[in-house]
Amino acid sequence: MTKKVLRVAFYIRVSTSEQVSKENSLPAQKIALEQWCEKNNAVCVGLYADEGKTAAKEIRKRKEIHRLLSDVRDGKIDLVAFTRFDRFTRNPEEYFKMMETLNSAGVQWKAINQPELDLNTDMGQTLILFYLGMGRQEIANISERIKATSAVRIQKGSPVTGAQCFPFGFTIGMDDRGNKIVIRDPEQEPVVWEYIHHYELKQSHRLAMEHCNNMFGLSIGYNSYRNMMKNTLMYGHYKGVDDYCKGYVTKERFERWKAMNSKNIRVGQKRKTYIFTQLCRCSECGHRMSGTTSHPRPNDVYYYYKCNLARIDKQCSFKHGFPEIELEAKLLERIKPEIERYIDECEVEDAQPVVRPKVDVVKKLEKELDRLNLQFRKDRISEEEYDTEYEALVKKINDARAKEAAIANPVKRDLAPLREFLQQDIKSIYSTFTREEKRTFWRGIIDNITLHPDKTIDLKFL
Q: Does the predicted model carry a pTM greater than 0.85?
């Protein structure tokens, strides 16, 4: 069968020291990848270039490779290509993270100037591990130098990250000698003091957040405030240095917040089992109906299914609940007739004479696929049109082959288990099930149930 034209993503990267190198320059990498595409029935569907980025950087700090992985997850790419493996990564941990994404999408990578690095061979995989090991040592050496530099900066009270990494209430300022230091943010400081006061008064992050946002006209999220109160910068401590910056409170006061916060434990409601959860749909609007309960008496629980579009958004006319007990009764009455009808349909279908097609449909469709690939390579149709038509043709070919196989080797369905099931006392057996077992039973035979306001139902069996 004709292979689909490969949709290739070009990943190119240079670190700052390599930007002047002719061999490793971005244009040189791009030209080499384009030439490889021309020889290998492939087309470039995206260029992802990280300029001035080292391969030791984490994925989140390499903007273009993050965009590349996002497009991989969206199914836009068949192969990731780069000139050499070190353009892609030198970090073993990051490599295996990226491979999880690539493997999940069925996408491979190709280092065009290093054909020995082949994921499909034992030798290739061994060489990849060797390269990663060398990269790990190089990263370790760089990391030690960075750590030593950072430790000196922290002892001096200098920032080692950008202001965006600080918790709410802190920023970067200057000391008397013009050196950068971490300071309390003058604009945010009034909000921080008000939050501290209200939290200590009410002992609730939620109430303190609502109070400060209303008072100052802000829209700061719950986690921003909560993370601020958990950060040791609040008492001037950072990575083992107690007087790193000027904090808001003493260490003792900060510890009291931790004790208060440990008592604010959320207790969730006991989870209920709804027998027909995810199966029921509203006949009026088509939305899925969700389970709910009522408690007319302390020890009684009644289960219902309601349309959320009616109950919450007031946009559906199906306002009443459908009792679960009534739905069970209707299904138990219909299960045997539905199975009998299915058996009859199967017997009629199996008795039909086999009609063999006169035209080789598969061969005809494969010729159409060849023409489609040619159009795409010559840039006569867009990628979106190509993908749509390719998927449609492949589906037709697979369907045609399955039909040919069914004609050549007709399989008679074994209806004996269903007939045996009809002989059993289903209602008696069903009454012994737990709620969880009942849910499993219905999910095994029903695709969906459409509920009507007049208490009638429409069934679609699997």
A: no
